[in-house]
Amino acid sequence: MKAIFNSRIITLKKISLDSKNRAFCYGDGLFETIVTGPCRLNLIEFHLDRLKRGCEVLNLDFQQLNAENIMEMISEIAKENGTSGALRSRLQLWRQTGGRYSPTSNASEFLIEVSPNTQPVFSMANGLDISCRTNVNFSAISFAKTMSALPYVLAGIEMRERELDDIILLNSAGYLAETHSSNLFWVKDDVIFTPALSTGCIEGVMRRFIMGQMEVKEVLASPSVLNFADAIFATNASGFKYFAKYRERNLDSPEKLLDSVIKQLQQP
Question: Which of 41, 63, 81, 199 is most buried (CB neighbours < 10 A)?
């Protein structure tokens, strides 16, 4: 399989990383998962905006990345790997080696990998509950997707142990924040709610897209509101996932309410 490392096409197995690589040692970097395809609205500008703002917070050079050259690199790798159709690309950007907790450089490196995207735009899941072990917290960088993802890994382990399809994280104040891999939404009387960014949730690109297309109320909410929700769904770069059950309570599908947004997302 081929990838692009610092603008050069290279075989993945031949990528050589220093043992002092700062992404490996300190999680000093950011990433974006970008879904594209012939029947998919391109949200790459949202990804780049979040990535650029994350680089500004970390004092990390953004490189000469823009929507046009990233799409060219994605197309080039897909062609090299014989992949077509819906694509899932992972763009990782990290600080070059130097220093310990206090870095000695703002220079960065980046890697782009491309694989087929098999996740549907709209899907259903069942088991959903709240994490008993893991919280998230607001910080200057909590809006971005960083390479330090241990809270989400811990939540994923708990989810697997409890045989759930997804798991909800609260923040340290006890407010709903997000799921282990997605932004959280719930519906009551045809009104859509989502946790405010001040809870520490990631500023997801699909969250941003939805909020630009329809009215969504950003709130600080305790977990008890989910006991009265008509529907609960989660979003990430791949699309929408709704939950047929929360704990032992059956829920409605929000597909009709989201129909116009789903159709718009499926336009090239």
Answer: 199
pLDDT digits (tens, 9 = 90+) for 138-195: 999 999 999 999 999 999 999 999 999 999 999 999 999 999 999 999 999 999 999 9
Neighbours of 214 (CB within 10 A): 11
Do residues 194 and 184 make contact, with C-beta atoms less than 8 angstroms apart?
yes
CA–CA separation, 225 vs 165, rounded Å? 20
Q: What domains can be seen in the chain, in order of their start residue?
A: 2-116 (3.30.470.10), 122-265 (3.20.10.10)
Of 137, 179, 172, 173, the C-alpha closest to 155 is 179
What's this model's pTM, rounded to 2 decimal places?
A: 0.95
How many separate helices (H) and strands (E) can be counted in the chain? 6, 16
* Residue 263 CB neighbours (<10 A): 10
pLDDT digits (tens, 9 = 90+) for 24-73: 999 999 999 999 999 899 999 999 999 999 999 999 999 889 999 999 99
Task: Count other C-beta atoms under 10 Å from residue 249's C-beta.
Answer: 13
pLDDT, tens digit, 9 for 90 and up, residues 61-108? 998 899 999 999 999 999 999 999 999 999 999 999 999 999 999 999
Query: Who's near 216: CB < 8 A, 6+ residues apart?
Result: 185, 192, 193, 194, 210
